[in-house]
Amino acid sequence: MKIEILTTLGCLNCNKLEKMLDKLGVSYDLIDVSIKPDYLKKYPIFTAPGLVINDKLEFSGIPNFKDLKKIFN
Asked: Which letter does DSSP use for residue 64 in this model?
């Protein structure tokens, strides 16, 4: 499973999502959209973070922990 977090520098909500995924034992890649703006063309998020699973934007903003748990357990 390919997991990417679309983030920006200093994003507090992004840190929260990282902690949730860490708690679930999920490996992910961080993609800073200010450095790689092409990701915003592919995944038009209006608020960070964006959670991309297998090349599909699943969440924009902070998802509910229960929803994450359903996906990854």
From this structure: P
Which distant-in-sequence residues (6+ apart) come within 8 Å of 37 by Cβ?
none
Tell me: the pLDDT tens digits for 22-44? Answer: 999 999 999 999 999 999 999 98
Q: What residue ranges define each of the domains in the chain, with the CATH number in brackets?
A: 3-72 (3.40.30.10)
pTM across the whole model: 0.91
Contacts of 51 (CB under 8 A, 6+ apart): 3, 4, 5, 6, 17, 57, 58, 59, 60, 63
Closest C-alpha to 63, from 21, 25, 9: 21
